[in-house]
Amino acid sequence: MSDADLAQLRLSDYAFVPAKSVGDDDLVAFAAAAWPERPPYERVLASWWRRADPSCAVAAVHEASGAMAALCAARPAAWIIGGKAATGRAICEWYVAPAHAGKGIGKRLVQHYARPDRYLYAFAMSEAAAVNFTKLGWKGPYSSALLALPLPRLAAIPLSLIGPGGVAFEFHVVEADQGVGALAADFDRIEASRDSTLARMRRGGDEWSWRFAVCGARQYHVCLARRAGAPIGYVVVRRMMPGASRMLGRHEGALITDLVAIDDDPKALRALARQAVAIAARLRVVVLLMATTLPAHRRALLAAGFLSPRLPLVGRLLGRAAPIFMWSPVGPGAPLTENDVALTFADSDVDLNL
């Protein structure tokens, strides 16, 4: 993010700066104004973009008062769209303090991340944000599927380290300060063998290295599946940060950050989903959650005991909480439809926040 780029954003009375350069007190004051329903406001100081490159978040500052007026964070990613490589950015934190609303600041911040060759999208946004993205001409909003498994300990079954079709499982616990290590080569091999029919984020070693570098004090449980020694897929489970979810409150929950199998092999996905349940059972959480746009994921999770979003009562709750997604119709996103896009918690900052 060069000074020239930020200078082009300039609006009357407002300057645009890397959000990392904003002082802690000013950032907390902005959080209190933008998200009054989300105390403690000091939580913003642990935001992932404060550990990332300065280009990942831009702030608008009111020049007369020096107050932070708006924030826009954009998670970087490499994508495959139409079988071709594309750059991507997921618009994540996008807020304007009420005292500064209606002046075009939010629109200008999103425009900063737009490029003719970039896939610009958002996942797990609020309904208010969806309204604003609609005004910008974005496609959507569309809903993903949120699936939940209450009390994984009751659903877990004893599992062998050898699954169907000779698939062997190995388990890794990754701390943020350790980095991806030897798993990077396995992630790369899986990514290189995946089908490119759907538009999807690349999930090789570089992507996971970036995630572990910015995720903060988190611990990831990775179950890697191999057949004849070659990696064919994996599932990643993580305990949620206490108090991060308003839906769960102080109850302990876990996320399936990602679920991947080469060619979306149904047997491999089902086996990995069952392993995710076993991991969550060992973590002794009250619920395991995953959001996805892929029917193959939904089928695998339902087979592992997850509650269906189609259930009469629980389904309505899951439907209201399911992340919604949209994207800019410019550039690589122009030809895409709702059914062309593969998204999970790994594709936005959800995993980095909850």
Describe this protein's structure:
It is a single chain. The protein has 354 residues and is α+β, with helices and mostly antiparallel strands. It folds into 2 domains: 3-140, Gcn5-related N-acetyltransferase (GNAT) (Aminopeptidase), CATH 3.40.630; 146-321, Aminopeptidase. The chain contains 11 helices and 14 strands. The chain has helices at 3-9, 24-34, 105-113, 127-135, 152-155, 183-192, 205-214, 266-283, 295-303, 314-321, 350-353, and strands at 14-18, 57-62, 68-81, 84-96, 118-123, 139-143, 145-150, 167-175, 200-201, 219-227, 230-239, 253-261, 287-292, 324-327. The strands form 2 sheets. Strands 1, 2, 3, 4, 5, 6, 9 and 14 form an 8-stranded mixed β-sheet that branches. The protein has a 6-stranded mixed β-sheet with strand order 7-13-12-11-10-8, with helices on both faces. Strand 10 (219-227) and strand 11 form a beta hairpin. Helix 6 (183-192) crosses helix 7 (205-214) and helix 8 packs across helix 9 (295-303). It is globular.
Q: What would the average pLDDT be, to the nearest integer? A: 91
Number of helices: 11
CATH class of the largest domain: Alpha Beta
Low-confidence runs of at least 5 consecutive residues: none
Instruction: Tell me the CATH topology of the largest domain.
Output: Aminopeptidase
**Gyration radius, to the nearest Å?**
20 Å
End-to-end Cα distance, whole Å, is 27 Å
Say how many strands there are: 14
Shape verdict: globular
Return the structural class: alpha+beta
CATH superfamily of the largest domain: Gcn5-related N-acetyltransferase (GNAT)
Helical content band:
25-40%
The CATH architecture term of the largest domain is 3-Layer(aba) Sandwich
Strand content: 25-35%
Q: How many domains make up the coordinates?
A: 2
Main β sheet profile: 8 strands, mixed
